[in-house]
Amino acid sequence: xxxxxxxxxxxxxxxxxxxxxxxxxxxxxxxxxxxxxxxxxxxxxxxxxxxxxxxxxxxxxxxxxxxxxxxxxxxxxxxxxxxxxxxxxxxxxxxxxxxxxxxxxxxxxxxxxxxxxxxxxxxxxxxxxxxxxxxxxxxxxxxxxxxxxxxxxxxxxxxxxxxxxxxxxxxxxxxxxxxxxxxxxxxxxxxxxxxxxxxxxxxxxxxxxxxxxxxxxxxxxxxxxxxxxxxxxxxxxxxxxxxxxxxxxxxxxxxxxxxxxxxxxxxxxxxxxxxxxxxxxxxxxxxxxxxxxxxxxxxxxxxxxxxxxxxxxxxxxxxxxxxxxxxxxxxxxxxxxxxxxxxxxxx
Amino acid sequence: xxxxxxxxxxxxxxxxxxxxxxxxxxxxxxxxxxxxxxxxxxxxxxxxxxxxxxxxxxxxxxxxxxxxxxxxxxxxxxxxxxxxxxxxxxxxxxxxxxxxxxxxxxxxxxxxxxxxxxxxxxxxxxxxxxxxxxxxxxxxxxxxxxxxxxxxxxxxxxxxxxxxxxxxxxxxxxxxxxxxxxxxxxxxxxxxxxxxxxxxxxxxxxxxxxxxxxxxxxxxxxxxxxxxxxxxxxxxxxxxxxxxxxxxxxxxxxxxxxxxxxxxxxxxxxxxxxxxxxxxxxxxxxxxxxxxxxxxxxxxxxxxxxxxxxxxxxxxxxxxxxxxxxxxxxxxxxxxxxxxxxxxxxx
Lengths: 347, 347
Fold this sequence. Notes:
The structure is a homodimer of 347-residue chains. By secondary structure, chain A is of the alpha/beta class. Helices cover 24% and strands 26% of the residues of chain A. Chains A, B: Keywords: Metal-binding, Oxidoreductase, Zinc. Chains A, B: Residues 11-342 form the Enoyl reductase (ER) domain.
């Protein structure tokens, strides 16, 4: 669950600087991957800046990793040198608890090992992520990338893709349903593409009129401007499912009223406290507010296969490794459509 | 959907006084019921006091109605004179919308007709409830009461029973699951009895040490005192399902942490705004906060049959009609174990 890395945040000033990290040699169940692309997730920036108070430096972010296999351990029959593979947010779990048993390794009761900034028995004692030339990962946590997908565009599928696919899939989104995607960023733009590919009537719900045109290009059938009270009233009780990608605390009540009776809004972004929730709305309509966190390995592979079938990748801006600090700044200003992906050739 | 009544609240001073209400003669699809018992629900008190601002006087409360059939319309083959029957919170719905089509008449998109204080085409233009000698109800909204159940004890099943049964059933409560019932009142005591009858390991979660003994008597396997921090910590992540019957706005976060990953807390009481909800808790554990409102007719009959099989009725205090104003006062002081039921012989 570790790697060779040349980039790390040496301090918590939010600035990435070169740093040398301990290497793990591939063991018998491991796959060694030459990293070609790595997506830049908001979590990376939070980790680099220690926003969550759990960062240990040196820290190598990156959990949207695409590359090709350069070596496999003696017990690995599943992958061969040259295979296109990916690594997402997880690199290990106990594989024997109640959560792992039902393919929800992200909820491992013994604590999943995250791709970076997570404790491990490897040299260095920590995992180091994908802003790097190479990574060594246990075979069960390596994913196959469909050949037809653009590799750079596929990188964000490993986090933004599965984070949005999992709830859409879990709540049975399909043709005949009206699905709202709240918030148009890295997660939201994947939500539109995936809900649309699943056949749902997909509605982008955003505060920004500017984003309406882009939402349609991404596959939205309709756009609902949430600051327009008349529009919001018109859509009351119309949604079979809402995917809420807003990344900060907010008032969810205006969205809950958009749900049909017996329907669900799932949060994937707001890890902060939400404002007061109207209990009567939930009770009187038998409505549900749920959360969802990435996805397990089985579902992540299913998502990648689905994206292969429907030719879905992320809209990206490819950057050089040396652009990362600028990219972080632009992300903070919400100035990216819709994901930065680092070309690791440039490292 | 109306009745003959002799008691109504003439004003919104929260006091019941005698009043004469217009009668409906049974139509061809109607069942006429001589009311024997009527449970006293908190909603009755809210309606009498116009707490929700929608009361029209004269108002006859009561939607936990048990009686026997005294007449049936010409199209009614389902019921005969002398049958033990019940009427709950609903007396009509459109029976043709998306909600009615899936037996969720309580969410009728054209507006269900509630048993009292609801608009209707009948003489008087309003429905009048069960604090009365007789009621006339469309046959599809009349329920069969299993013969083995105590009639007075069965009355609260029509609201408190279905309100708790529906979410327990909907979320698949069964043997092998650990289920918490939060709050021990009219709803909570039914929650314990029903979850226990479904075979779950049932835990009463209450602020009150006084209620612990009673909870065990009602069928709880364990009692968790929610003001005890060590106890609350011990039960973290242990519950497969939580039924939250607290009737006022409160902080749900301490309860959400008690849930296992991928599990649900369902609200049935708190129609007021809830305090800030921790989005991270929902997301990181793929947890769900849901609401549930009574149940449809099909599920209500299923609940009554289940109670018949398991001999489950409510713990009640039988009162005379003339005691109703005292009973309201005691309810407000939370001084009832666990439901008042009016003996309509005394009217």
